[in-house]
Amino acid sequence: MAPSKLQLVFSAPLIALLFLSSALMASATSNGTSARSLAETSSQSVFSLDSYGARGDGSHDDTQALAKAWAAACASPRPAVVLVPGSKRYLLKLLALSGPCKSSVTVTVKGTLVASPNMADWSDKDRRHWVVFRSVDELTVNGGGAVDGNGETWWKNSCKINKAMPCKEAPTALSFHFCTNLKVESLKIVNSQQIHMSVEDCTNVQLTGLSITASGTSPNTDGIHITRSKDVQVTNCKIKTGDDCLSIENGTHNLRVSQVVCGPGHGISIGSLGDDNSRAEVSGIIVDTVQLYGTTNGARIKTYQGGSGYAKDITFQNMIMDSVQNPIIIDQNYCDKAKPCQAQESAVEVSNVVFKNIRGTTVTKDAIKLNCSKSVPCHGITLQNIDLKMEGGKGATESTCQNAKWTKSGTVLPQPCSSKNWGMLISN
Ligand SMILES: *[C@@H]1O[C@H](CO)[C@@H](O)[C@H](O)[C@H]1NC(C)=O
Ligand SMILES: *[C@@H]1O[C@H](CO)[C@@H](O)[C@H](O)[C@H]1NC(C)=O
Ligand SMILES: *[C@@H]1O[C@H](CO)[C@@H](O)[C@H](O)[C@H]1NC(C)=O
After folding, report:
1. What pLDDT shows up at residue 412?
2. Per-residue pLDDT averaged across 78-106, rounded?
3. Is 266 one of the annotated active-site residues of the chain?
4. Do 341 and 307 meet the contact criterion of CB atoms below 8 Å apart?
5. What is the mean pLDDT of the chain?
6. Secretion signal: which residues (predicted)?
7. Nearest CA to ligand 1 atom 7
8. Which of 49, 123, 184, 218 has the fewest CB atoms within 10 Å of its CB?
9. Which residue, 204, 206, 207, is CA-closest to 196?
10. At what angle are helices 3-11 and 13-29 packed, to 10 degrees?
11. SS3 label, residue 421
């Protein structure tokens, strides 16, 4: 992002917020048609769902029509387009769209893909997926249309909502597994059964202009989940859900997130890492120009005790937080298990983490919480130019810092580094 725009964000935050939000809305809802993509379409073979027997009435099952259109497109020696025509709703059950394909494939969604709301259409054999793209090189999904997970029935039956129900998996609306040179752009993803989009084992990925929306009370409805993937960019997205805006999991390397608006939801999380004594490797994460509204966390790294490996070279910068509960948090004692987690010596090592140019408001007084491991302290943590005030001006904010080593021009902050005074925490 150009430095001039950053200046604007910070000199006139409110105006800039309104401006940026409406710009994001506009681009997230456009159907992505440009002169260039029309020109490309004319040299491509087009495989419309309607030519493969789809009804598009929202009640007949169109799964086979999409499967057939995909198979034809994937076998095309020329670049192919699978077209989901506009103004129609195509009902789908579980569906895998697999490569490798002969040439590049673009799935242009102008209408809506809607998940069957009938629970009898979902088998216990695979409850984790709805539409899965697997092993495709040069896949683009675009079109400005929608993917609707019809999640309300799943949410009602979630053990997080109804304690009488057993805890079971629910489908991820869109999954991308083992894809290379992947672009997903100009798409609305709404009301997923669980995670909205998951990128797993992929390389060279661009996610742009996505609008992801589900109720703030919907259970486990992460916006975008990324794992075992590298060289990933997420830009210009608007994500409102009931769980993490972005969850960045094990095996993510070289991820750049910019111009993303989150909330409601749980904010941006790296982890949880290292549960069940597992190894984790996460590096090269830049989260830049992200705004969070009313989220439970802002910028968070969470690891279980007993893990190994690392989370390193991570930057959260140029963020605006509005009424966030825990704006900045590193928790190496994270535990989200039925039983309390045992104290353990080993830990995922957290290092070289920069929190820079972060401003806005918090609804709890804990603006910064660095709760690191006693045996594997966090190191190389930088907090720079942080300005977090209590929402509504209700008193002073606080920061707590345990087992966090902080180097700035050769200075190591004394332990513990609890302080109500920002001046002691901010290195310059
Ligand atoms: C969507 O694309 C069509 C061309 O296929 C264009 O005519 C129309 O204006 C676009 N609609 C929006 C809302 O951008
Ligand atoms: C995390 O990734 C590392 C490196 O690829 C791997 O060794 C480890 O098994 C993974 N951990 C889990 C929990 O999958
Ligand atoms: C840090 O985590 C430990 C273990 O969960 C907890 O007992 C402690 O209260 C936490 N410290 C702070 C300051 O929150």
Report:
1. 42
2. 98
3. yes
4. no
5. 88
6. 1-28
7. 33
8. 123
9. 207
10. 120
11. coil
